[in-house]
Amino acid sequence: MSRRCAWVTKEPLYMEYHDKEWGVPVYDDQLLFEMLCLEGAQAGLSWWTILQKRENYRKAFDYFKAEKIVHYTDEKLQSLLEDKGIVRNKLKIKSVVTNAEAFLRLKEEYGSFANYIWGFVNHKPVVNHWKTAEEVPVSDAISDKMSKQLKKDGFKFVGSTICYSYMQAVGMVNDHTLECFCHPAHQKSTFRE
């Protein structure tokens, strides 16, 4: 019988996210940016809350096209504050614009945002071998370092816990538990692409 990580509920959307996205390496700049924004939106909330609103977020934030977001006017920000489809937190909404500016700067400097962000794990996913969900940390030395650097580079809502959650989401860290069928130990090759 196929087992999933213990945190996954029976909700089809959650199961699909776990099975097809969580822990799978992402190198696409726009998706990396989207996930960073969504992880920031999650601060103080559950991932399930954000996952259910993900399509609303995509529409509200022009599918996370940073080039568009950096030109948001006060009127656009006000309309986002009134959008019931997303978390209406002024600081979180403004952080998407701030983060878009930092994202574009780093993309220019490093050739891609992927080059920059994957550098924190030496451009290779960290595959952990946890037996239980309780063993999985909420942060580590890498997420601490990433958080400090992202803040220094102008990002907001990038604390160490958010960074660790982000690394899990974009496959920089694979924290599927050993019993989970998504753990690389159950795959034909080490990486799922």
Automatic annotation (TrEMBL):
It is an enzyme of class 3 (hydrolase). Its EC number is 3.2.2.20. GO terms for biological process: base-excision repair. GO terms for molecular function: DNA-3-methyladenine glycosylase activity; metal ion binding. Keywords: DNA damage, DNA repair, Hydrolase, Metal-binding, Zinc. It catalyses: Hydrolysis of alkylated DNA, releasing 3-methyladenine. InterPro entries: Adenine_glyco, DNA-3mA_glycosylase, DNA_glycosylase, Tag. Zn(2+) binds at residues 5, 18, 176, 180. Hydrolysis of the deoxyribose N-glycosidic bond to excise 3-methyladenine from the damaged DNA polymer formed by alkylation lesions. This is DNA-3-methyladenine glycosylase I.
